[in-house]
Write a structure and sequence with these properties.
- 19% of the residues lie in helices and 31% in strands.
- Strands 1, 2, 3, 4, 5, 6, 7, 8 and 9 form a nine-stranded antiparallel sheet that branches.
- By secondary structure, the protein is an alpha+beta fold.
- The chain has three helices and nine strands, in the order βαββββαββββα.
């Protein structure tokens, strides 16, 4: 689908029994949480290593495009960077039960699907194209999406998103850089998503 889109900018906490303690986790301890992606598990960049910020309790700042408004304050996130414009983000939410997690994953999908349409009139200089890259058989399921934004002055960005769930835990992974769909490492990003969901167990 094609639509106008405003310019978007562009840890998992302890399991449900101790999720309330996430805010007290120190950055040093959170940074070693094995249930979050490691930099080496992201799609390889041809000219740079990946670097990771500590796993941090709370919503990412800035919020990611399209899905940011759906992320609760109980989110836990990790930001990844390269020496170039390519960046990534993982956000994980522990819900009180599997049904609540299933509903939250559905909410994230709705936000992704509706994003271009909802923002159609907010910036006439930007257009967006969305693609669905399919489902992945991992955990209780994962899905992969791509959104390409372009401006009337020639700037273009490509972002990949995945939403995965295992039991009462949902994880969102976002990858982005300047470019279009031809620059999107879809196969490698799917592998990253499978790894991210497996780490939720």
């Amino acid at each position: 689908m094609n639509a106008h889109l405003r310019k978007g900018t562009m840890a998992l906490a302890a399991m449900a029994a101790v999720a309330g303690a996430a805010a007290a986790t120190t950055p040093a301890a959170a940074a070693t949480d094995p249930r979050f992606l490691a930099p080496s598990e992201l799609p390889p960049h041809p000219r740079s290593a990946w670097f990771a910020d500590p796993v941090t309790a709370g919503q990412p700042d800035p919020l990611p495009m399209c899905v940011g408004d759906a992320l609760p304050s109980t989110s836990v996130h990790r930001v990844f960077r390269t020496d170039y414009d390519t960046g990534a983000l993982q956000v994980t939410v522990v819900e009180r039960g599997a049904q609540r997690a299933k509903a939250f994953a559905a909410l994230l999908r709705e936000h992704l699907s509706a994003c271009p349409h909802e923002l159609v009139t907010q910036d006439p200089d930007v257009t967006a194209t969305e693609r669905f890259y399919g489902k992945l058989a991992v955990g209780d399921g994962a899905e992969v999406f791509g959104i390409n934004t372009t401006t009337t002055w020639g700037a273009t960005d490509i972002n990949l998103f995945s939403i995965g769930r295992d039991g009462n835990v949902v994880t969102l992974v976002k990858w982005g850089e300047m470019g279009d769909f031809t620059n999107a490492p879809v196969t490698a990003f799917k592998a990253t998503t499978v790894t991210a969901v497996k780490k939720l167990r």
